[in-house]
Amino acid sequence: MGDLPFAIELAGQGVANGLMYSLVALGFVLIYKATDAINFAQGEFVMIAGIVIAALASDAYGFPLWLALFAGLVFMVLFNIGLERVVLRPLIGRPIVSIIMATIGLAAILRGFGPMVFGSAPRGLELPIPDSPVIFGPFFFSPIQLVGAGVSILFLLGFGWFFLKTRKGVAMRAVADSHQVSSAMGINVEKYFALAWVMAGVVAMLGGVLWGSMSGVDTQLALVGLKVFPVVILGGLDSIIGVIVGGIIIGLVEALASGFIDPYVGGGTKDFAPYVLMIIMLMIRPYGLFGRKLIERI
Known about the structure:
By secondary structure, this protein is mainly alpha-helical. 72% of the residues lie in helices and 2% in strands. It is globular, with a radius of gyration of 19 Å.
C-alpha cells in the first residue's frame, strides 16, 4: 500500500505532461489532415519558436514578455506562410514522400538556423507563473504543468470543433484525402495547405513557450518532436481524440517507468518505454487506436 500514493502522484504528473505532449503532437495531426504527410520538422518548429521568444525576452533584446510572445506568434505565422509558398506549394500533387523528405531537410536547416541567428547558449523562458507547487489531495503539480495542461485541453478541443463542425475543417479533411479530387471539386487546395501549416506553427509556438518554460530553451527543445511521435502513432495520425488519449498514455508510461523501473536499472527506461509501446502498436494496429483503417486493393 505504501507505493499507492506514490503511484497516484506519478500518474497525476504523467497526465499533465501527457496533455502537453498532445498539444505538440497536434501539429503532426494538423499537417497530416491537410496533406496526408508527416511533418518531421514539427520538433524544430517548437525549438525555433522557443528560441525566438526567449531571445526577444532576454536582456539582449529587451522585449517585454507579452510583446515577445506576440512577436513569436507573428514570426511563426509568417515563417510558415513563407515556408508553404516557397518550399511546399510546388509539391502539391507530387508523391507524399516528396513532402516528407522536404520536412526532413527543413528540420536540419532549422537546427542550424536558430542558433546561428540567436546564439546557441541555453536560455530560460520565465512566465509570470508562481513557483510554489499546487497540491490537490494526493496529486502534486508544478503551476506550469497545470497551465500547460489547461492550455492544451483548450486548444485540442478548439481544433477538434474546427475539424468536425466548420466548413473549412471539412474542406481540410477532403484535401488530405486527395489533392486532385479536391481541386476538381472547387476546393482551393493551396489555401488549405497554407492554413494547415500556419495552424501547426501556432501550435508549435505554444509548445515552445510551455516546454521552454519547463526545461529551458536550446536546440535540445527540438527533441520534443521525437518524444511526441509515439503519441501520434499510438492515437492515430488523423485523430485529435487519439492525440489526447495517446498523450495521456505516453505521459503515464513515462512517469511510472521513471518512478518504479528507473531506480532499479539505473535510469533510462522512461526515455525508451514510449517507443517500445509505439513499436507494439505498429505491429498489432498500425493505424493507431483512433486512426482510420485504410485498405488498399492490389
